[in-house]
Specification:
Layout lengths: L2 H13 L1 H9 L3 H10 L13 E5 L2 H6 L4 H6 L6 E5 L20
Parallel strand pairs: 1-2
Helix pairs in contact: 1-2
Length: about 100
């Protein structure tokens, strides 16, 4: 995500009370799984490993400041080896597909 977009997103959440209320009530799915695990409410009797998994950390999760919850949840599956990719993928979120950043024919 472009740094200016990150700054605007963070400012919007901190300044708009309605946006802040929604952001506090909505969870990323893997954030929810990790919270359930922390509270002892997530079943972890997995029947098979996931093998080798590459996990790309999306730029927007850095702005959300929630940590690497997908990585934490995947690590709960025994026999799973994680490769965390922290580089920009160049096409995450909506920035890369907005009219100002794509060519039209």
């Amino acid at each position: 995500m472009h740094p200016h977009v990150q700054e605007r997103a963070a400012a919007a959440v901190s300044e708009d009370l309605e946006v802040k209320a929604v952001s506090e009530a909505v969870f990323d799915p893997f954030e929810y799984f990790v919270l359930r695990h922390r509270d002892g409410l997530l079943k972890t009797d997995f029947k098979a490993s996931l093998g080798k998994v590459s996990y790309h950390i999306p730029c927007h999760s850095r702005v959300q400041n929630m940590g690497q919850k997908t990585r934490e949840a995947l690590q709960l599956v025994p026999g799973t080896t994680l490769n965390t990719v922290e580089r920009c993928a160049g096409h995450d979120g909506t920035w890369a597909s907005s009219p100002s950043t794509t060519r039209t024919r």
